[in-house]
Amino acid sequence: MRVLTVTFNPAIDQTVTLDRLVPGEVHRAHAVRQNAGGKGVNVASCLADWGLPVAAYGLLGSDNAASFDALLGAKRIEDRFIRIPGATRVNLKLVDAAGTTDINLDGIAIDLGRAEMVAATIGEAAQAEDIVVLAGSLPPGCPPDTYAALTHRLSAKGCRVVLDTSGLPLKCALEGSVLPRVIKPNRHELAQFLGRDLPDGAALVAAAQALQTRGVGLVVVSMGEDGALFVSREGALCARLAIGRLASTVGAGDAMVAGIVAALAEGASLERTARLATAFAVAKLGMAGPNLPDLASVEALAAEVVIAPATGGEALGEALSAGEQ
Ligand SMILES: Nc1ncnc2c1ncn2[C@@H]1O[C@H](COP(=O)(O)OP(=O)(O)OP(=O)(O)O)[C@@H](O)[C@H]1O
Ligand SMILES: O=P(O)(O)OC[C@@]1(O)O[C@H](CO)[C@@H](O)[C@@H]1O
Asked: Domains in the chain and their CATH numbers?
């Protein structure tokens, strides 16, 4: 069993820290930091910290690949990126007291040939039982059904596909004839996919259960500080853990995906999956960049995660508060 991550549209994340973001005003920044990112890269980085062997696939602009070379090299992540002419996008993350404002660019435009080249590289490399993480947006020119087609191809080889994307690529994948093993939308992405509001916990649970019944093995809906919902054939759980130190919220969802993959790799129960995924996310919140602390610290967090059943349509918040008492 190996883990392969796929990032068609990586990004260099430039995190700028300000007092207060006011549209239209001149700001003096306190600090600025850059790190190699993009959802699949962040997942690979957290999994490497956890000690799993990972290979990272996708496309990288050859003009500014140095931070990716450094990250992949330092963490011994197998570098399977195809270099293409141009510069990988730089995404702005504006951090102030109210939270993080993301300004994500489109990325390097590609043609069908490039998209097919990446798909062929992964399709050939992946083997039965491998876990393949398809994560992030698709760059301009990449067909929106790219993840749907890859899910079909990889599942036919016996791979377990974990999908974390949004918008049209998510819609295509969930309307395909073969569904991913795992999806992790946040609640806004799930509402967008369904084309309707999910006003409360009961609506979220019902939506996640409907997807699971249609054939997605594990549906995880992340909800920021409200924790996350985990639905599989074993049942429906909600999980939450209060954060300690907050260093950066960027990539918390990716760390959660990494935790889900770590749990899949151990053949974990739904409860262990919820604990590990939440612990990864909260551990990452304490770190700048897509990094985890040492394994013992993550396991200690996993033991502290508050788990509650999310059956019967009760509000998630109520279930979790009851679990905390
Ligand atoms: N403020 C917080 N307090 C406690 N847990 C948090 C907080 N923010 C995030 N988390 C944890 O991280 C998980 C993922 O966060 P979130 O739902 O924001 O993901 P996301 O929208 O996919 O984020 P991103 O795109 O930045 O990776 C949550 O389900 C939760 O477990
Ligand atoms: O534009 P996408 O591909 O949807 O998201 C890209 C991104 O916001 O995702 C990561 C955080 O999850 C960041 O490293 C990166 O900038």
From this structure: 3-21+30-324 (3.40.1190.20)
pLDDT at residue 30 in the model: 87
The catalytic residue positions are 254
- How much distance in Å is there from the Cα of 325 to the middle of ligand 1? 23
- Say which ligand is closest to the CA of 100: 1
Which residue in this structure is represented by tokens 């909260």? 282
Mean of the pLDDT values across residues 206-211?
96
Q: Rounded CA gap, 245 and 200, in Å?
A: 28
Of 125, 246, 222, 131, whose CA–CA distance to 180 is shortest? 131
Cα 137 to Cα 118: distance, rounded to the nearest angstrom? 15
Q: Is 43 in the pocket of ligand 2 (CB under 6 A)?
A: no
Report the amino acid identity of residue 325.
Q
Residue 292 — very low, low, confident or very high, per pLDDT cuts 50/70/90? Answer: very high
Structure tokens at 210: 């409907």
15 within ligand 1 shell (Cβ under 6 A)? no
d(CA 218, CA 232): 5
Ligand 1 atom 9: residue of nearest CA:
224
Q: How far apart are CA 221 and CA 191, in angstroms?
A: 11
Q: What is the ipTM of this complex?
A: 0.98
Q: Is the minimum distance from the CB of 38 to ligand 2 under 6 angstroms?
A: yes
- Cβ of 223 closer than 6 Å to ligand 1, yes or no, is yes
Q: What is the pLDDT of residues 266-280, one digit of tens each?
A: 999 999 999 999 999
Which atom in ligand 2 lies closest to the alpha carbon of residue 104?
A: 1
In the chain, helix, strand, coil percent, each to 5?
40, 25, 35
DSSP-assigned beta bridge partners for residue 93: 15, 102
Token reading at 285: 């919140």
Nearest ligand (C-alpha, residue 91): 2
